[in-house]
Amino acid sequence: MHDLLTAPHRAPAQFSDWKALLSLILDSFAYMEGRIDPPSSAHRLTPDALSARAETEHLYIAGSPLTACAFFAEQPDALYIGKLAIAPAAQGKGLGRAFLIEAESLARSLGLPRLRLETRIELTQNHAAFARFGFTQTAEKAHPGFSRPTSITMEKPLFP
């Protein structure tokens, strides 16, 4: 299990290392280059945009130095998991699962009946990883300008 320092937890109100957070996301998503079309929206992120996002969403982080993060957004019928990023050197060690467990706990505390996320159509290994945690595909979407699906929506129902 992860110790307190590396376990996912809500970012403190005084969190301010937005450059490190952006670097973590870009490093974590780098493997997608050339694999997904259109390119990841991570390329449009800025430190200021991440700071603003944290004002309306729940930012969870892990590690010192920063090794993982996720944004959890409250939707009317779900908790949306966005920008789940694990540093390449920390992947495969259970942090992704730990963040999903945190998302479940937060969703339950907020009275939300499900978790929701989106992943690119090309990233079939991500589909399989989320399916192992109980997510199922619920929709396909196309980015603007594309006539084919470019992402899938996956959900995991939560029960009391």
TrEMBL record:
> Which GO molecular-function terms appear in the entry?
acyltransferase activity, transferring groups other than amino-acyl groups
InterPro entries, from UniProt?
Answer: Acyl_CoA_acyltransferase (IPR016181), Bact_Acetyltransf (IPR050832), GNAT_dom (IPR000182)
* Gene3D superfamilies given in the database record: 3.40.630.30
**Which SUPFAM superfamilies does this chain map to?**
Acyl-CoA N-acyltransferases (Nat)
What domain of life does the UniProt record list for this protein's source?
Answer: Bacteria
Q: Which residues cross the membrane?
A: none
Boundaries of every N-acetyltransferase domain copy: 7-159
Tell me the keywords, alphabetical order: Acyltransferase, Transferase
Q: What is this protein called?
A: Acetyltransferase (GNAT) family protein
Species the sequence originates in: Alloyangia pacifica
**What taxonomic ancestry is recorded?**
Bacteria, Pseudomonadati, Pseudomonadota, Alphaproteobacteria, Rhodobacterales
